[in-house]
Amino acid sequence: MVFRPHATHHVEAPVPFDREIHGDVVRVEKGVAPKSIVHPANTILSELTAGQLVKLCLKRFTNRDAYYIIFVDHRVKETQP
């Protein structure tokens, strides 16, 4: 999924709580667009910068209607279809 975050999410250290990630889904490459994206507690991910396109690989939580990020690719260009 190609995604444009609304806010910058710094990854300086893991935190003991979940953080919801808000932004615009630009393109879904497989499956359906998630209703909720969560950065799980005690995990470290690549930083997300407000307005910068990223490709996210997501996995659905087994116990709730939300997805968590398993991979972030910053090599996304605005002109990609």
Defining traits:
36% strand, mainly beta, 81 residues, globular
Description:
This protein has strands at 2-5, 19-21, 23-27, 37-39, 54-60, 67-73. With 81 residues, the protein is mostly beta strands. Strands 2-4-6-5-1-3 form a six-stranded mixed β-sheet, with no helix packed on it. Strand 5 and strand 6 form a beta hairpin. The protein is globular, with a radius of gyration of 12 Å. The relative contact order is 0.31.
Radius of gyration: 12 Å
Q: How many strand elements?
A: 6
Strand arrangement within the widest β-sheet reads 2-4-6-5-1-3
User: How much of the polypeptide forms β-strand, as a percent range?
Assistant: 35-45%
Order of helices and strands: EEEEEE
Broad structural category: mainly beta
* Shape call: globular
Q: Into which percent range does the helicity of residues fall?
A: under 10%
Quote the distance from N terminus to C terminus.
12 Å
The number of helical runs is 0
Largest sheet: 6 strands, mixed
The average pLDDT is 90
Show unreliable segments: none
Record the SSE blueprint.
Layout: E1 2-5, E2 19-21, E3 23-27, E4 37-39, E5 54-60, E6 67-73
Parallel strand pairs: 4-6
Antiparallel strand pairs: 1-3, 1-5, 2-4, 5-6
In brief:
The chain is mostly beta strands and 81 residues long. It has strands spanning 2-5, 19-21, 23-27, 37-39, 54-60, 67-73.
